Amino acid sequence: EEVTGQINSLVEGDNQESIACISGSDRGTTAMLFKRLLAALGSPNFITVPSMADSYNAAIRKMQGATGAVDAAFDFDNTGFLLSFGSGIVEGWGSPLRMIRAANVWKEKKAPMVQVEPRLSGTAAFARNLLAVKPGTEADLALGVASVIVSENLYSGQAAGAEGFAGFAAMVKQNFSAATVSEKTGLTVKAIEDLARKFANPANRSLAVCGHGKGTAPGSMREFMAVHALNALVGRINAPGGVFAVTPPDYIAWANDAVMAGAAGKTRIDEAGSGAFPHSASLLNRLPGKLTDGGASIGLLLVSEANPLYDLGLTDKVKAAFKNIPYIVSFSTTMDDTTRMADIVLPNHSYLERYEDIPVRAGLMKTLINLAKPVTAPQYDTRNAGDVVISIAKALEGNVAEAFPWENYEECLAQTLGDKFESMKEKGFWEGDALALAGRGFSFPAEIPPAPALGGDEKALPLVLISKESMRLWSGPSASLPFALKTVPDTELKGQDTVVEIHPKTGASLGLADGKPAVITTESGNAKVLVSFFEGIMKGVVAIPRGLGHQVATEFARRMVG
């Protein structure tokens, strides 16, 4: 009643477009119920937490003419040479079990794998070769490899016949010669040329991938476009062993879908899909700035399975921006960072207490939908978020209520999945046919976006800070529990202290000592850490683990927050 009243007051004031939702996903019935509620109200502001998949989506839409939702799928089983630009292939990238299995297949076949990153990660240790490049120059290396392939006529017939090839070839030859890229990356000219020749060998069925670490965070369009173009040069677009542009699973076909037209064509608060961002589906990172400078306003915010105050970083700035939102509703299962500042909490069942379809979006070549099933009765006074959305819609009455014909979420899920539902309840998943290709042919870009600038004054702040990721640290909305933290080594977390990696020579030059405390200073603030000397990291670089620092109000997390 409280939330319905807040929505009604905005609708009566003709301010329904100020209603927004931040969701942890844009796939599955629960996410689509939130999106449907907003569309029925006339709001386009269904915003998702950014991910690697979004970056691939935008690159494919821009370079292959795809419209709507699109995914990148990878034929790893038939890949003979993998070039990874910082992707944690054996550390949780995409689908962890699938990637570990694929890596074992490559090892058996003695298929080479080259890892490009500034530190010796688990994936780098697994790979045949590690090419240590200066942080932020991965796209330059991809374009340098492309330049060698073009200059030595090693490209495929598929590339030569693609739209824009001549302009792209001229651009990389002029701006990204091996000598130029050598200066930017720190690699030798010979290393760049050798890599290009191996990658372009048609017998290798080469594939390049990007998306750093576990692949949960988005990357720059510069890097994703450069890597996608590199695959196109050697004929690996929609080809065996390569990357495929596919349409996501389309199993949610609800009646009265004219409802979704209620938000069509309207400009979103984050401006995704319009203006300067025509290929972006969602731009949550723009929201805090828009709220702070008055460029946009939100009257009511729904937050479902997302924790933007943590996920976006710079928590103080995001929190200050969110204070401009008069009413925040959280559907979280835990009292996470964002939920702590919500005006009202409608807590969701935990994943062990609810039914929910979970379509897999991890680079698969075919449809795979998992089904979360309750294994215990709800332990607290919670409700399935899908049930709550349906209840709110019915309470709003009129056209909004008519758009939600189901009595409850389980009925909605059963009708949506149809004859798949019963078999999914037994097996836990449903596996479908190969996904359909998306978009037209490939179009090489005439130019690549400029490199993002490093933050801060390079003279005052001479070191480069990078993040490192591992499966040991959960990237979800809450803090890991004690039994999980037992698997985290002392080189990442020791007691209540975050541990950072630095090369011994760099550390010694700064007067640091291994295992001793220090203070990291960036343009965003300071942090007390412990130092770990590690010879597997480039000089002048500091690596900090990602996934710590949740300000979560649970008994255990209170003791972990310094």
Question: What features would you describe in this structure?
Answer:
- The chain is an alpha/beta fold.
- It is built from 21 helices and 20 strands.
- The strands form five sheets. Strands 15, 16, 17, 18, 19 and 20 form a six-stranded mixed β-sheet that branches. A five-stranded parallel β-sheet has the order 2-1-9-10-11, covered by helices on one side.
- α6 (138-151) packs across α8, α6 runs antiparallel to α9 (178-185) and α6 (138-151) packs across α10.
- The longest helix is centred in the N-terminal third of the chain and has 14 residues, at 96-109.
The termini sit apart by 38 Å
Number of strands: 20
Rg on CA atoms, Å? 24 Å
Give the percentage of residues in beta strands.
15-25%
Can you tell me the overall shape? globular
As a percent range, the share of helical residues equals 25-40%
Number of helical regions: 21
Mean pLDDT: 90
Q: Biggest sheet: strands, sense, closure?
A: 6 strands, mixed
Name the structural class: alpha/beta
Unreliable segments (pLDDT under 50, ≥5 consecutive)?
none
List the helices and strands and how they pair.
Elements: H1 2-12, E1 19-23, H2 29-41, E2 46-48, H3 52-64, E3 71-74, E4 81-87, H4 96-109, E5 113-116, H5 122-126, E6 129-131, H6 138-151, H7 157-160, H8 165-175, H9 178-185, H10 189-200, E7 206-213, H11 221-233, E8 243-246, H12 287-292, E9 300-304, H13 308-311, H14 315-322, E10 328-330, E11 344-345, E12 356-359, E13 366-372, H15 385-396, H16 398-402, H17 409-417, H18 420-427, E14 429-434, E15 464-468, H19 482-485, E16 493-494, E17 497-502, H20 504-509, E18 517-522, E19 525-533, E20 541-545, H21 555-560
Parallel strand pairs: 1-2, 1-9, 4-5, 4-7, 5-6, 9-10, 10-11, 15-20, 17-19
Antiparallel strand pairs: 3-8, 12-13, 13-14, 16-17, 17-20, 18-19
